[in-house]
Amino acid sequence: IRPRLTIAIDGPAASGKGTLARRIAATYGLAHLDTGLSYRAVAKALIDAGAALDDEAAARRAAEVLDLSALDAGILSDHVIGEAASKVAVMVPVRQALVAAQRRFAETGKGAVLDGRDIGTVVLPDADVKLYVTASAERRAERRHAEILSKGGDARLEDVLEDLKRRDARDMGRADSPLKPAADAHLLDTSEMDIETAFQAACDLVDRHRAE
Ligand code: CDP
Ligand code: CDP
């Protein structure tokens, strides 16, 4: 029997990591966890409770009671919640609780694809395949902007770009588990790549690992 396959996909906002993670999971019959949703859910819990986004005790409690199997991507996909998520994500107790739950998820079943910021570096340092997906801030902003418009929303491209840059800086600059490629991650720059080409490149890496 083939051992459990674990795949770590990290990268900045709107690099395409979520789309890749979902497609890889479907192709190889693995479970998929979008770990960004767990940080978004903690942020939303604080907002709903009227708590400050730096209220560490409230954030820790929200992270500890979170049920990863009951996260609603529709409700949490909001752009304001993404920004709030990056604020709660700097707090050590929040990360400790969420990382523990994410590891439990990866350890069950036949294998899993997790996508986020610290999967290859912290959550699953022994993942079989690690991918670090990037694209220029301008391309990522164009993609996010198109996504907002396609959902009937409204935003200026310049504002989306500013938001992305601010969130990247917070994610790369924090002390605990900053966004950075693991030493053994494969880099995939999708600036000039459509999602199909990126998916093929990712599958090649997974197939190469499985042939070893
Ligand atoms: O998960 P992450 O925030 O990294 O990105 P995503 O939600 O997978 O992708 C953001 C948007 O960019 C989606 O609408 C994708 O279809 C699009 N995209 C693209 O057009 N070309 C790529 N190579 C990657 C993503
Ligand atoms: O989809 P997008 O890339 O815009 O954001 P996300 O993956 O939903 O993540 C929202 C925020 O949660 C990020 O900006 C990070 O601050 C935080 N996050 C994290 O710290 N660690 C992870 N493994 C995933 C997300």
From TrEMBL:
<dbReference type="InterPro" id="IPR003136">
    <property type="entry name" value="Cytidylate_kin"/>
</dbReference>
<keyword id="KW-0808">Transferase</keyword>
<keyword id="KW-0067">ATP-binding</keyword>
<dbReference type="InterPro" id="IPR027417">
    <property type="entry name" value="P-loop_NTPase"/>
</dbReference>
<dbReference type="GO" id="GO:0005524">
    <property type="term" value="F:ATP binding"/>
</dbReference>
<dbReference type="Pfam" id="PF02224">
    <property type="entry name" value="Cytidylate_kin"/>
</dbReference>
<dbReference type="GO" id="GO:0006220">
    <property type="term" value="P:pyrimidine nucleotide metabolic process"/>
</dbReference>
<dbReference type="GO" id="GO:0005737">
    <property type="term" value="C:cytoplasm"/>
</dbReference>
<feature type="binding site">
    <location>
        <begin position="11"/>
        <end position="19"/>
    </location>
    <ligand>
        <name>ATP</name>
    </ligand>
</feature>
<feature type="domain" description="Cytidylate kinase">
    <location>
        <begin position="7"/>
        <end position="203"/>
    </location>
</feature>
<comment type="similarity">
    <text>Belongs to the cytidylate kinase family. Type 1 subfamily.</text>
</comment>
<dbReference type="InterPro" id="IPR011994">
    <property type="entry name" value="Cytidylate_kinase_dom"/>
</dbReference>
<keyword id="KW-0963">Cytoplasm</keyword>
<protein>
    <recommendedName>
        <fullName>Cytidylate kinase</fullName>
        <ecNumber>2.7.4.25</ecNumber>
    </recommendedName>
</protein>
<keyword id="KW-0547">Nucleotide-binding</keyword>
<keyword id="KW-0418">Kinase</keyword>
<dbReference type="GO" id="GO:0036430">
    <property type="term" value="F:CMP kinase activity"/>
</dbReference>
<dbReference type="GO" id="GO:0036431">
    <property type="term" value="F:dCMP kinase activity"/>
</dbReference>
